[in-house]
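TEACHING EXERCISE
Course module: macromolecular assemblies
Task: Read the component lines below, then compare them to the predicted structure of the full complex.
Student: A.B.
Group: 4
Components provided:
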Amino acid sequence: MLAATWLLTLTAAPAQDAARLDVNGLDPHALNTAAVEAYRAGDLATARTHWSTLLAAGANDAERARLCYDLGNVACRAGRYPEAVGWYSAAQRLAPRDADVWANLEFARREAGLEPADRGDLSATLRRLLEAPTPREAELLLLAALTGWAGILAFEALRGGRWGRRLALAGGLGVALAAAPLAWQSLTAERDPVLTIAAREVGVAVRSEPRAEAALIAQLGPGERLERLGTHGDWTELALPDGGRGWARSDTVFALHR
Amino acid sequence: MSASSILRRLAGALALGGLLAAGALAAPAQRPTSVTAQLSTGIVKLGQEVRLSIVAENVQQAAVEALPSVDGLRFSKPQGPNTQTMMTIQNGRRTVSQTLTWVVGVQPERKGDFRIPSFTVLADGQRIATRELALKVVEDLQGEELGFFEIDAPGQVAEGQPFTLELRFGWDAALDNRLNYANLSLPWLGALAGVVELDAPVLARNASTVELNLNSRERVQAERLPDKAEGGRTFHILSLKRRYLATRAGKIEIPTSHLEFGSVDESGSFFDLRPRREKETYYKRFPAFAIEVVELPEQGRPLDFTGAVGQIAVQAGADRRDVDAGESIKLTVEWTGDANLEFFEPPDPRHLEAFKGFRVYGSTDRKTWERRQVVYDLAPLSADVSAIPPLPLRVYDPARKAYTTVQTQAIPIHVRALANASGLGAELAAPATTIDIRDIQAVPVLASASTRSSGWLAWAAGACVLAAWLALRTLVRRRGDPASPLRRARRAAFKNLTRELETARSASAQSRALERFLAARSGEPANAWLGRDVRAWAAGVPGRLSPAAAEELARINAALDESNWARSDQALDPRLVRAAAESVMQGGL
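Instructor-supplied answer key:
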């Protein structure tokens, strides 16, 4: 009964339509084709405009990841590597296992003078493993593990015995492992993350108030992830890692929720 | 093992995993801690108070440990600390730079030369010692009019801008016959916060120099300048220069400086270190002052600004101008001027669109305080290249308070086509590969599942699983432990009966197997079923065994007894016994 209920839950994941039927009266497929052609012809401004329009019009997550990736390529080709890092990071949030996104993200980070997103050490490898599934996949993984564990626990409840207990414990560890990605993503979830995108040598100045004359309270390098608390004119309020708050110019940060 | 002990073990395993993950993911960063101590003046008149400033940079917590005891000096309790915090985040490493400042009043109680010994500051658990400080207390600071002292310093500099402090000092030329000693008392030397001291400008070879004492503990060469007439007196003038680079916005406080000159007894030579008995001493003071360090403006800052601040001139040259395609050209670019030449990042032609026709093999960088020379190793890729394009450097000019671009002149070159080339040209004929981004994803994704989680479903399901398990377990155990020997024997009874019936060759063996089956199912000893009146037993307690099952069991027992006694113990068809056993189980036993 329980398993049947979950099965229904697993299969009821909502499938979204690729794109809306029209974007301001234009066919999204035609707009995408025009963007691709413009990109191929080196007209980066037109490609950027079309893909941005498609992104703003709304689409499913995989399509949004693709559009962010393509916009990252536009920024890369224009030599705006910090911005490209922002686009690829936004794409990576939506498609965390996309090899193209990872390859281009690392390329853009290198060109922007940043350390690799995956440094290859234990910490980075653990993080990459935990962030490999999307939140939905992490949830399904945990539900599948729970289904198996429910069967084991039923056996243990009805039959008991040493083997029943051992199986229940092993199943519990399996569920804990399966829960790790979802737990990690829940713990580290950011409400409205932004990425600093100023050039390495310049950095992002964070001030105590949203005006240029206010006191400088922090200096951030490019590629730093912070949470956006709000905006005021051309200024964005950021949550600083020490628990404080500060204001940076909006053109020096890049919103990752796309 | 109980449910609670299983949960405890599970929680322990999760906690261990969490600790391991947290340990692996943590990556703190910290700048080196420094502590400086500085007196507000090196020479003071008896009765006046001196301020001792103690500055601890890049610390979270610090405390001044016991101040030294100096006979003749009275120290007040340290006031502060005043805290100034600045945070920097680079490549994910957060660096919090916190500066703590204490001020201690020092009251001289008698005249004399005092040494304030080194004392320690406990900074983030680390004991850091300050340097020894010198203080001279005199009865009277006489001779102001006999000396000359001025410090030439900018009132304002930009962050990252180098600046020079030029100290010009001297004494009345009429005192020449009476002087054999001079000392510069600069309590701030080597103790300025917020600056990096650069190499001092090198004196010209033909410069005339004079050696004198500095802070009564070292010797320094000062350049002799032409005499200067002022206020009806003629002064001999000496000059000493120090160069600094401002590292952060704020104020650079420079305490009072003194020039001390006069005559002493028992001195070995003119300007000897540490005079033993002063006959007459004069003092010329230069008051404390501050230099304001302003931030670089954000407005108009080019994206490719690499930190160059100052006034810069550039010149460039190529070692050859007539080359084959692919042949190396050494482009030497030299930046000079009053700027932070040692501290900016030189431009990288690989990132410049104008240098697309070149392959950049690398560069060699040489830095001195007066010039920055970078030699770029370039190779034109084709005969279409006709010049080495201008190489731009973005510079912040503090004089104009604006960002400017300093760039080299284009250098015309002649590049011969590869067809006639050899050597490196032949090597280049092979297709060259490079790292590039992967191509765009041109095909729209028509449909996909959402990547977002419900946020609660899985956790709720986990809680349900645990609750259902605990409920079921509790319910089952009300009837006893399902893993007890009796319950296990009861569950295995039918399987054992089937196995025994397969090997039983007589009715008596079948009868014994059936008795063991009934014993396991009922929890009674096997001999309790020997000759039992099953119908009466079943009727004795309602619900113990259904009448139909009791009847079936009585029949098979009778059949087995009959075969045993009347038909030479001939075995019955085992299926009949199994059917009776199944009927008994269905009947409630």
